[in-house]
Protein: Carbohydrate kinase
Amino acid sequence: MKTLGIDVGSSSIKISVMDVASGQCAGSVTLPDKELSIDAVQPGWAEQSPRMWWEYVCAGIKQLGATLSMGDIAAIGITYQMHGLVCLDKRGEPLRKSIIWCDSRAVEIGAEALEKIGRESCLQRTLNSPGNFTASKLAWVKRCEPELFQKIDKFMLPGDYIAYMLSGDISTTTSGLSEQILWNFKEEKRADFVADYYGIPLQMIPPDRPSIGVQAYTSAAIERELGIRQGTPIAYRAGDQPNNAFSLNVLDSGEIAATGGTSGVVYGVTDQPKADPLSRVNTFLHVNHSAEKPRYGVLLCINGTGILNAWIRRQVAPEMGYDEINRLCETVGPGSDGLVMLPFGNGAERMLENRYTGASVLGIDLNRHGKAHILRAAQEGIAYSFRYGVDIMREVGLEPKVIRAGNANLFLSPLFRRTLATLCDARIELYNTDGALGAARGAALGAGLYKDRDEAFRSLTKLETVLPDPHSKEALESGYVNWKAELSVRMSRL
Structure:
């Protein structure tokens, strides 16, 4: 018996098949060969075609189907880039490209909504500013594309669109409503007052279902096209960061997960709903939340992390693989000999109060600094940004002492792992999982193929534990002080 996990990212689409009995990956494919294209027709904008996502999902399933029987799939799980906006007409066709997570065009609309709804009232009920989240993106469409807005029948998140294409059923999840800033935490119900303020008809909002549990069933058309039997349950759906936490068995209060893909994220679980007055970190319903046993995910997101690492590689060392780059970085000492890099070049940063400072390279000495310094400074600059965010999380009551991560993306770098552990004074634990495999595991749990959490995660294996390095502590702390000073200068100019 097998389950299928679909991970719809902004950089790639990954499809994994999990063997339920062993909990191990039976097959996986990532598409395309290069990163997915992001359309940025204006500064701060970022859009992708929902049809492009679906085409790669189908291509990935067909590729796996060449060696694995899709007729053996017993349940499907979906994870996706959070906060994106997909608008469908009455025929179920996308009306425009999706405005994705890192698009910052709605920042001012969200800030205006916070003040007009009432800052205290809004934060008490939604725990977040409407900010640059999905509801605010839709408000931008209403304001700037009114003719298109009138044609919208339903709006949804990227993962909701994939579930719809698999089943023909339009729905979202309660966790998904919270990431759209359409959940009232105080009253444990949908936040219709946000939609009413924005002038969003309530009938545009899909019905919501639990993240873990049967949500819909695949259609006959999917059986004909992809070989997955009609009636296969879609039994799990979650945004990429709640799903990353789920993948790492981070489900209880006090547990912390991290990831370092295009963006960098630290995600902590708590049982106390608490807002950051400055909305630098955001609180959403976690995948296992219930009114009886509340679980909230506190999310710190840094847009410009992994994307900086990839950009620097393309510009400075296109001929080198990441393993070779990491070896070269080790030839330079902690602190990169005074070279400082700010990684914030991928849109407005929530932890910087929605400011866009841009990326910067500072302190270059043309007589001393070379390729190795630039490459190391990029990784350290990313780690410094994580430390900056972790300090914010400490302000709202979370204390990361153990951080769990999948053995993927930035966490494949021994240097980055060691630097982050040292800066945050936390133990980092690496596990044999990723987003697509986590979604497949969630599908098995949601469909009842696993009887409980313990059975679902018994195959999760810790690969490595990374401890803070006392020998580099002083140099990294000094580097962080310099980095933070440079960031303060940049922010003061905005």
Summary: The chain has 17 helices and 23 strands. The radius of gyration is 22 Å. The first helix runs from residue 50 to 65.
